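Query form — protein Membrane protein

QUESTION: What is the three-dimensional structure of this chain?
INPUT:
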Amino acid sequence: MSVFLYRWGKFAFRRKWIVLPVWALILVLLGGAAASLSKPFQDSFEMPGLPSEKATAILEEHMPQMASMFSIDAINGTYVVAAQNGELADEPNMTALNVLVQRLNELDIVDHAEKAVNPVTATSMMPASQEAAKEQAEAAAELAPGAAPPTPEPNCLDGQNSPEFKGLCGGAPLNVLNEERPGTVAVIDVKFTMPTFSDVTEENRQAAEAIAQEGRNAGLTVELTGAIAQTQPESGQAEMIGIGVALIVMIIAFGAIVAAFVPIVTGIVGVACAGALLLTGTSLTEVPTFTPILASMIGLALSIDYALFIVSRYKHELVVQDSPEEAAGVAVGTAGSAVVFAGLTVVIALLGLSVVGISFLTAMGIGGAIAALFAVLAATTLMPALLGALGRFLFKPKLPLVAKHDPEDDNSVTNGMRFGRLIARVPVLTLVASALVLGALAAPATQLNLGLPGGDSMPEDSSVRKAYELQTEGFGEGKNGALVVAVDLSETPQDQRDAALTALRDKLASYDGVDYLSVAQPSQNGQAALFQVVPDSGPNSAETQDLVEHARDAEAALKAQYGMEYGITGQTAIYADVNSVLLTSIIPYLAIVAAAAFVLLLLVFRSILVPLTAALGFLLSMAATFGVTVLIFQEGAFGIVKDTHPIISFLPIVLIGLVFGLAMDYQVFLVTRMREEYVHGKDPKEAMVSGYHHGARVVTAAAIIMISVFGGFMLSPDITSKSMGFALAAGVFFDAFLVRMVLIPSLLALLGKWAWWIPAWLDRILPDIDVEGTKLREVQQRAKPASVESEPAGV
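ANSWER: The structure tokens for Membrane protein are given below.
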């Protein structure tokens, strides 16, 4: 591979005015295809095999209208309304409520299959006892079509407080059971006509919010939550921060200004090509909204990192080679080989996200992998052409203070060389110190609690957050994550169905943590029924998830006795299911990416222990990252985060995928140079110090760039984005600076020549990819007598 890349590097450098227009043409063609074929991004949540799907299937078969209401992809909204003075049943609150409901029923984006009803009126129609409920049902059966049903007495506005009353009226849209301020908070659930989240436009959101504002103008407190109130994720801020920091870092790394812009150019081109390809892909399949954001983040950071690595090697080769063209060939042949294999580890880690079985995670992984591939292509093919085009202007103007200590000058004593020598002198001390620090930081990870973002994770000034708090104040926290129990009675004898439903309701009522349990709501064909359960605690609490688990465990005994089956769905149940699937996916995901990366690193380093220590070091950095993230975002340490929440369920799997790829990048960047020095005759410790001298600044610069890109997400007001950005930045920090630059060099110094040991039989069967460039040097030696003297590098 090194020989092929060496020849390509020389060709691209020499034929720059062919390579550059070809890249421009590729960019134009991909951009044109994207412009003409792209369709809107689609967000759908598909996770086959979730236990909550059983309830959905029962509802779709027997109660289709209810199924659409409880679908995870349904575009719904909940208006949480509160009286600023008195109760909602008082004038003028009642008048304002009537106007609000009327305006909702006039809104063209609302599904009018079932009209919205004033919550006070709806509560007054609810019976307050089993007898009243039975009488109401009998009276309704005798009504003429279109006639208004009689108001039952007593009803839920009467304020009774018996257990039976709570069972019937706990599901009222008005908080009649609130002991401190009954009748002051209500909810109006609305289903909108947009089929998917991606179809919701900003005009739709503004129209829905305008209704809420009309209610506020009329003297009510009105907040809106649900899918209609969720906004599309914003992009650009983190990327701009990353580009700005990257430019400063590369000016320092190269000691010159012009060279710092070259990786920025390859990064922008690579991201633009990947983005255009993803846009084109929307014409063939569904692409989630967040995919291009993740791809641009990965593509930009990797493109800059890879170009930085190759340009740094080019700067060194300018000193030792006969011509800039030869220097470009050797730089692409050696550093470019490392870039190819580093990129492959990222691609494997991202494609491995498909093992989780979540459609949008798979799509994001594929999008990120495409961006990583373009990062490799831009660094190895576009980069040498840019080097040739800039020529002698590349490392001008020099910055004297920065360029004074050049890591590519073997005679220069840099901080990297000093630290490498320190590690070589006391490897046991540096190894133990780094391991202890990582271990101490990892300790809080044992308290990791996963959850999905809800209204309580939104910014404090958002309507979604205010609606969550208002609903909690009026009805209790469990109202924000009610459970839906869908019962299939088709295999239950008809004369036993009432007894079966009573037995199930009694069982559900017996569990701790149940705030409200409705009476059974039968389907029209009598073969199914529906219960609604409101827990005491919120959707992400361990108590609520335990309640779901206990209720599901009771199904086997009830099925054996009555022949009925049931499923549990709703936000809380889905959260519990997703958490469980993601937790059980972490180990197989780690095994797949680690095994694949081990094979790649085995090919790169031709060693058993180096790939093994690379993987074990990654586990340490991940444990430390989880620990610090739990400490700050879940436990609230240091007061950095005001509101603590469970760690988002998707964070561990995404964190592992992204940071694993980057960790192997830094491993390849730093340790390939050490192996190269060892292969070319230096003793193990000397090779470690020399490789550290050449690679420390590059790895440091690459890590700072990645930390800046990820850290930019901490500026978001959304706690989910904050925690994701923090965890990614912390993961890169721990892995780059503690594992790759302290722990791994310490192990190499201690292991000596055994670090590079490989069984002879394995060495014979492994293909020789020659990352260290031994074969290309042989090619150089054979070509030298026939070569024509070229211009000196002048650097």
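ADDITIONAL NOTE: The beta strands are 76-83, 185-191, 220-225, 450-451, 483-488, 514-517, 521-522, 528-535, 565-569, 647-648.
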